[in-house]
Amino acid sequence: MNKKEVAEIRRQFTPERCTITRICGCYIDGEKNIKTQLKEAFLSLPEDDGFKYFAIFKKTLSGTLGRNLLNLDFPLEEEKEGGAQEFLLKLRDSQLKDDELIQEFYNKVIETFDFGENYYIILIHMAYDVPGKALDGTEMYDASDNVYHCILGSICPVHLSKPGLGYNIEKNCIENRIQDWIVDQPVKGFLFPCFNERYTDIHSMLYYTKNPAELQEDFIRQMFGCSRIPLAADTQKETFNELISDTLGEDCDYDVIKNIHETLNARLEEFKDEPEPLELGKQEVRRLLEDSGVPEEKLERFEQNYDQCAGEQTSFLATNIASTKRFHIETPDVVIQVKPESAGMVETRMIDGRQCLVIAVSEHVEVNGVPVQILREEDE
Q: Measured between alpha carbons, how far is 247 from 127 in angstroms, rounded to an integer?
């Protein structure tokens, strides 16, 4: 799914657009015991409860594609009888009215989800009558040609509220506040099937993780049967940096790295309005290095390094490997952070026989918040 398709599903989580037919929930304690369950029509919930659930569902489809939201494909064996995709399909087609299937789903989560604290599993069924679109992108609600049936699951931690004092309205006094168990925003979630090209795609699903560094690969494999899992966002950056370092070797100097940084950010800027994230495979990374001035002799060993560091079929999302918020330079004693567009202000020069970083400055400089005077050429 791309950004536009995810956004279209998120827009349904409002009272005016709501297409949720049924909601089920299961509260699990830290010892993996089921404490209570919920099963009812979503529109029968109190209005205030509905708004809070909407916020959770929107959060489950939030974040950056390739970082918080991962498109996962099912292996063929998981689409056969007894496979994970086949089970999810039966669960969806039941519209969450089959108690045995729902209980089996809860048990699968309890067995495979590594958490160790209290959490709340929420499962909903949606039936979205997809409107047609005119050439100018305008939605035509009287021209729908398909209904998107799906299930969305959210796993939310449940924490005890902090102790403290509170105001008791009935007694009109300040007293010790009663601590409650609060359902937090989701840490994991999924949407099945995917809404690809605005149609149902039962061969893939969308997986959500609040923390990109904690995908819980074992949970993905055991719960959903998806064996081909993209590298976590942080791992992609580490792998890309290792690839650059191994390819350049002793010629990995400041100017080349700065050029790679600027070229990558320029491509991201060109691609920012596209619904699909910018993805770089082996050949795209090689072209990036070429455009950044990496010598041809260094590129001769690039492909071997790529296969060893990343794997031949591995690709990188540009948003995971680029530094769009800061240009970071670090030595054992000094750390310099520059706005990406101002990276050219930092240069390397030989001064008195020593390799130095030189920063061009304007007339205004502050040290610990105190304006200081700049040494002028005539003062020298």
A: 51
